[in-house]
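stuck on this fold:
=====
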Amino acid sequence: MDDAADQLKQLMMNIVDMNTVVESNMSILAEINKLPGDILVVEQIVPDGS
């Protein structure tokens, strides 16, 4: 029983960590969106899935 509870607690902590990462990424994106358009050449660096 304790094992399942520990696994659940660990899962919850992982979800919280993922949410924190998502939130910080969103704020980074928001900062990038405030920059002038020329700087958004960044998009070309990210490989697309083709």
Observations:
- The mean pLDDT is 78.
